Amino acid sequence: MTVVAPILPVAELKRAIDFYRDALGFDVAWIAGGEPPRTASICRDDIYMMMRNDSAARNSEIYITVTGVDACYQRAVDAGAKVLAPIADRAYGMRDFAIEDPDGNRISLGEELAKK
Predict the structure, then answer these.
(1) What's the whole-model pTM score?
(2) Separation of alpha carbons 60 and 57, rounded Å
(3) How many angstroms separate the CA atoms of 59 and 42, rounded?
(4) How many domains does the chain fold into?
(5) Using an 8 Å Cβ cutoff, are 59 and 101 in contact?
(6) pLDDT-derived band of residue 21, with 50, 70 and 90 as boundaries?
(7) Would you call the peptide bond into 86 cis, given omega within 30 degrees of 0 as the criterion?
(8) What are phi and psi for residue 6, nearest 5 degrees?
(9) Which residues sit opposite 111 in a β-bridge?
(10) Which of 15, 42, 43, 84 has the greatest number of CB atoms lying within 10 Å of its CB?
(11) How far apart are the first and last CA of the chain?
């Protein structure tokens, strides 16, 4: 096994794709499922995620380990992302932050303090 790809529930696929592109720099890998499309896959570096139109599903939470967490934070803030936890050094050895996507999914990004 080499990759795990979370599937996030979203109410509007285009809005979700726009958020992840603008706030976090993801690209669209594919879009499928009819018209309007129901599912999409986005990617950045070695990170893959899928999104599915499913407004009745419960929200999800993911944690992404990155290099250059401060730049990631600034990009998200500049794009208007809702910050749930501002960037800070944490007692568990990470410098991280959390934002919320337009569908209420919590996205945390962090970098190991020793590697920063």
Answers:
(1) 0.85
(2) 9
(3) 18
(4) 1
(5) no
(6) very high
(7) no
(8) -65, 150
(9) 95
(10) 42
(11) 28
Please tell me the distance from the alpha carbon of residue 41 to that of residue 60, in angstroms, as a whole number. 16
Amino acid letter at 5? Answer: A
Q: What is the CATH number of the domain that holds 51?
A: 3.10.180.10
**3 state DSSP class of 63:** strand
How far is Cα 1 from Cα 10, in angstroms, rounded to an integer?
Answer: 27
- C-alpha span between 98 and 108 (Å, rounded): 4
Side-chain-side CA neighbours of residue 3 (13 Å): 11
Distance between CA atoms of 86 and 53, rounded to whole angstroms? Answer: 29
Partners of residue 45 on adjacent β-strands = none
Instruction: Encode pLDDT of 34-49 as tens digits.
Output: 888 899 999 999 999 9
